[in-house]
Design brief:
Length: 157
Amino acid sequence: MNVRIGGEFSDIVRDAFLARGHNAESVDLVPSERPGPHRQCDLLTIIDDGWADLLIFHPPCDYLANSGVQWLHNTPARPKPGVLYGAARWSAMYEAADFFLRGQNARVACIAIENPIPHKYARALMGNYDQIIQPNEFGHGETKATCLWLKNLPRLQ
């Protein structure tokens, strides 16, 4: 199986698939923090090149996650430098949702997309997730609701 992993933590997931005998590569805009097959590029430029049977996609969640929905409508008394608020945040949300949807609609047989719980505006664009998991359900100590959108893949057990 040829596995392409894009986004944050892609090198960790890549290494897990390589250890199980799969042909896997990570893809991200930044260099890999670990040695191994890695392409430093925009995943969307190679997403439909026919190389992968499975795409595991970790798109940025900054403007899609429920945790930041308040900043679509409000600006704090002391805005943080580099944080988008109001109209600029709405624009960034639409751009992030477009990136998400291009991954979701890639011509790849099996797709898993991971992101935190989206806010209602993002969910209207992204569609409903297939499963919510907690890392502690799979041997990690953390609790952080994580959503999975799955195409031709079973739910995690």
